[in-house]
Amino acid sequence: MDLADYRKKLYDYLVSKMSDIAPNLAALIGDMVGARLISHAGSLTNLAKCPSSTLQILGAEKALFRALKTRGNTPKYGLIFHSSFIGRASAKNKGRIARYLANKCSIASRIDCFADGATTAFGEKLREQVEERLDFYDKGVAPRKNVDVMKEVIENLQNKEENKETVDASAKKSKKKKAKGEEEEEVEKSEKKKKRKMETEQENEKSEKKKKKKSKSAGGDEETDDGQSKKKSKKKKKSKSEDDDE
């Protein structure tokens, strides 16, 4: 069970690495066979530098040199033999499909090595071409030309980039509008706060004025009361003095 788990982890690691390093090659021929080709060549750049004839017999060097020594038939395929395409081809067409598949693998490895962006679009279209070639060998249906297929892929990628740019531009505009709306809301909120502060200050001033008026009126009443009481006391004193004189 531990070995099975370890194998699964290794396979997941291989899939993730192949999707990062050589997505088109993995889409065309599979993760395992693509990784074997890269490891046998030494690196992706070395594999990209190989011609398709060399890539076709990678892994079958012993058989090749033996055939050269004995002047026998050279091998038709090496590590590519593990691909499902060669297994699906008839015995008569195995060499043909191996040559065609090696051609597509060299194209895919060069795209992965030297392209700026990593996409599986080229690998998927190359896989479709190999499928069409198998149908051509079995049923005689004419496949599409490689130039037309590559043009179609490039146009699709350009359209996707344009759509992304338009989406990004619209997203930026919406963000700007949102930012402007938020700024306007903040300005409105600050203005409302200022108005509220002014209103409260005015109300406070009015209430203070009213209090001052009330206090002044209360002071005047007290003064009048004191003046009346003084007059009364004076009158009483006068009346007392007059009684005394009498």
How would you describe the overall organization of this protein?
The structure is a single chain. This protein is mainly alpha-helical. It is built from ten helices and no strands. The protein has helices at 2-21, 23-29, 31-41, 44-49, 52-56, 61-70, 84-88, 94-114, 121-139, 146-245. Helix 1 crosses helix 3 and helix 2 (23-29) packs antiparallel against helix 8 (94-114). It is rod-shaped, with a radius of gyration of 48 Å. The chain starts with a helix and ends with a helix. The mean pLDDT is 83.
| Helix coverage percent | over 70%
Runs in which pLDDT lies below 50 for 5 or more consecutive residues are none
**Please, what is the oligomeric state?**
single chain
Strand content: under 5%
* Shape label: rod-shaped
Give me the secondary-structure category: mainly alpha
Distance between the termini: 140 Å
**In DSSP terms, counting alpha (H) and pi (I) runs of 4 or more, how many helices?**
10
Radius of gyration: 48 Å
Question: Largest sheet, if any?
Answer: none
> pLDDT average, as an integer?
83
Order of helices and strands: HHHHHHHHHH
- Overall number of strands: 0
Biased composition (Basic and acidic residues): 161-171, 198-208
Organism: Brassica cretica (Mustard)
Subcellular location: Nucleus, Nucleolus
Biased composition (Basic residues): 230-239
Task: Give keywords.
10 helices, 246 residues, Nop_dom, mainly alpha, snoRNA binding, 83% helix, Nucleolar protein 56
Characterize this entry briefly.
The chain has 246 residues and is mainly α.
Task: Set out the fold topology.
Layout: H1 2-21, H2 23-29, H3 31-41, H4 44-49, H5 52-56, H6 61-70, H7 84-88, H8 94-114, H9 121-139, H10 146-245
Helix pairs in contact: 1-2, 1-3, 2-3, 2-8, 2-9, 8-9, 9-10
